[in-house]
Amino acid sequence: MERHVQGSCITEHERILQEIESTDTACVGPTLRSIYDDQPNAHKRFMEKLDTRIRNHDREIEKMCNFHHQGFVDAITELLKVRADAEKLMGQVTDTNRRLQEAGKEVTAQTEEVIRCRIQQRNMATTVEKLQLCIPVRVRGCVCLHRVSQYRFCQIMAENLPKLREEIKDVSMSDLKDFLESIRKHSDKVGETAIRQAQQHRTFISTVAKQAGLDHYTKPVFSLNGRAHSHTPNGLLMDDGAGDEEDADDEILTAQDLVDFSPVYRCLHIYTVLGDRETFENYYRKQRKKQARLVLQPQANMHETVEGYRRYFNQIVGFFVVEDHVLHATQGLVTRAFTDELWNMALSKIIAVLRTHSSYCDDPDLVLELKNLIVIFADTLQGYGFPVSRLFDLLFEVRDQYNETLLKKWALVFREIFETDNYSPIPVETEEEYKVVVSRFPFHDAEIEKQSFPKKLPMSQSVPQIYSQVKEFIYASLKFSESLHRSSTEIDDMLRKSTNLLLTRTLSSCLQNLIKKPHIGLTELVQIIINTTHLEQACRYLEEFITNITNVSPETVHTTRLYGLSTFKDARHAAEGEIYTKLNQKIDEFIQLADYEWCMAESDGRASGYLMDLINFLRSTFQVFTHLPGKVAQTACMSACKHLSTSLMQMLLDSELKQISMGAIQQFNLDVMQCELFASSEPVPGFQGDTLQLAFIDLRQLLDLFMVWDWSTYLADYGQPNSKYLRVNPATALALLEKMKDTSKKNNIFSQFRKNDRDKQKLVETVVKQLRSLVNGMSS
């Protein structure tokens, strides 16, 4: 029995332990109380059983821990390894999150703006709906008014309502006048905002076109609220703070920040309800016409600064942006015909003003700024639907004015280059210096390239400077063609025509003036000829330069050719002619130093000093001519010899020279012989045979005739093609013979004739008569 009791007690203890293990701790109290309420000493046996169960659980926990211990250690080790990577990843995640937040600020702001606009749109739609529902109620109320017309309050209302209507009209008209005054003052700010938006649109379109590789131009379409202009009403507000520059610098003001049209809407509604809409429309249009004339009136000194033009354009754009909004936000207050009439009137005035004021401007940078302002002005108004083709036609006139200012500017540049040039070949000491020169000017000469350093390039320093400045002019001219929405072919034609003007007019004039300057000597003229030759050769590189800019092939049918070749040829011919002139002038200077003793008895056997100096000068001068083209040097040499021969002949035949002795003739003959020796020494290569000596043939035959006294041969062979004295003119021979015949002077040769043989005197008389006969025969 006792065993049975113990067994049941043990079973009960097992149940209690299982219950304790499986139930919530809140329910353990009643269970434990049952143990103490049971048999005596039962709690001791339960405590033993509980201790045994705890030890069993401890052993199981220990086994479990031992089993998972190594895995736990490995996991902790892995965690320690990835701690550094986790920290690095956390930093990257934090940075990415920060950048994402910053990048999303604009999107978030735009999203909030879209949400705000949608709420406004919904509210507006709801308001319109409710107002439409109210209209029938108002009408029904008006219908019922006649039922109370017999009451006194209704009579009072009938008496006061007309006064109230007039007061309302007056108040609304006063608000409208304030609006018109305010819009006149702030139209430049409205225009500035519209133009700024147009510029942003152009920049965006240009960027997209470049990225897409497009060449076409997209017409801008704008509205004052920064969205595409779809001719829907835009709420516009103007306040006195709209002109704050700090706000304009931070962001583009929206339409609601600029103009408040509520006075217009209110006044239009009131006059419409009161049946006087036509009066209001006429008043509004009349006032806006007056304001248009004020806006179109420029300041007197507008042409002096860019800001003057910008303010003028801003006011006009602001005026027409406001009218465009009124046109589409109201029904019939202004019509398309009215705005077109205003625009046509304004366009004629604008063109006349710009044509007048641009003519005063002589600064190419200011003209270029004006062009840019006209383009953005035209693009802005074109975006609002106004025709602007006449403005782009005006730009062609402005382009001519721009080219004129450029030509004047470059004339000064060329003049300065010529004044600072040393007119000497460019010395190059090293390979680097040579590369610097050829990088600025396309020079290629195989012979010079083979020479060792130091060496000299044939042209002077002005040549690469002129070439570089022509390219700079082309760049400057190209600036005007930008943003004109013209094809590459048209731009190419503009560049070539303006470059031709620079070459044929400006540069040509500078060269011609340079050549005529008194301080330009023979050496400088020779260098100028060399310079123009190299510039002429470089013209094809200028053609290629323009082609590379415009990508228009020079073989295109309508491509304008550069006229640089004719420019430099004309300058070279002028320089050549000036060389001949200055060379002859120098010869005349030496001739003026001649001091012949015309009555000398006989020559001293030596050539005159002045003539030897002259010949030495010619020799040194013609050595410089070796760099000239062959024909130029030969022509100069032949011209000099002919001029010298003519001058000597004129010296003999000078009317102030009354007598010449045979000794003077002999001395003169020695001088002419030196001239002939100089001619035969080939001072300039390229003459064939005695071609150069023929320049003195007239003098030679005349002197031989008098030295030999071979009158019989001369008279007998006169007129024959093979005559020994074919080049001696009877008048020349007669004039010289008359000078030698005069017997009144001392040492006259005929006095010897009379002493030795009087028959010779008769012979001379006979020769003189025959020569006079020949001269008379020639004159008849």
What are its keywords?
single chain; 780 residues; mainly alpha; 26 helices; 2 strands; Exocyst complex component; EXOC6PINT-1/Sec15/Tip20_C_dom2
What would your notes on this structure say?
The chain has about 775 residues and is mainly α. Helix content is about 75%, strand content about 0%. The protein has helices at about 1-20, 30-35, 40-145, 150-210, 245-250, 260-275, 275-295, 305-330, 335-360, 365-385, 390-420, 430-440, 445-450, 460-480, 490-515, 520-535, 540-550, 565-590, 610-625, 630-650, 660-680, 695-710, 710-715, 730-740, 750-755, 760-780, and strands at about 425-430, 455. Helix 1 packs parallel to helix 3 and helix 9 packs parallel to helix 11. The protein starts with a helix and ends with a helix. Mean pLDDT is about 80; it is low at about 135-140, about 215-250 and about 745-755.
Q: Poorly predicted ranges (pLDDT <50, ≥5 residues)?
A: 137-141, 214-250, 743-754
In round numbers, the mean pLDDT is 80
Give the count of helical stretches: 26
Q: Give Rg in angstroms.
A: 55 Å
Helical residues, percent: over 70%
Q: What is the straight-line distance between the termini? A: 194 Å
The strand order across the widest sheet is 1-2
* Major sheet details: 2 strands, antiparallel
| Shape type | elongated
Helix/strand order, N-terminal first: HHHHHHHHHHHEHHEHHHHHHHHHHHHH
* Beta strand %: under 5%
In total, how many beta strands?
2
**Protein structure class:** mainly alpha
Secondary structure layout plus pairing:
Layout: H1 2-22, H2 28-36, H3 42-144, H4 152-212, H5 245-250, H6 262-273, H7 277-295, H8 306-329, H9 336-358, H10 364-383, H11 389-420, E1 426-428, H12 431-440, H13 446-450, E2 455-457, H14 462-481, H15 488-516, H16 522-537, H17 539-550, H18 564-591, H19 609-624, H20 630-652, H21 662-680, H22 697-708, H23 711-717, H24 730-741, H25 749-756, H26 758-779
Antiparallel strand pairs: 1-2
Helix pairs in contact: 1-2, 1-3, 4-6, 4-8, 4-10, 6-7, 8-10, 9-11, 10-11, 11-14, 11-15, 14-15, 14-16, 15-17, 15-18, 16-18, 18-20, 19-21, 21-22, 24-26, 25-26
Domain Exocyst complex subunit EXOC6/Sec15 C-terminal: 391-739
Function: Component of the exocyst complex involved in the docking of exocytic vesicles with fusion sites on the plasma membrane.
Protein name: Exocyst complex component
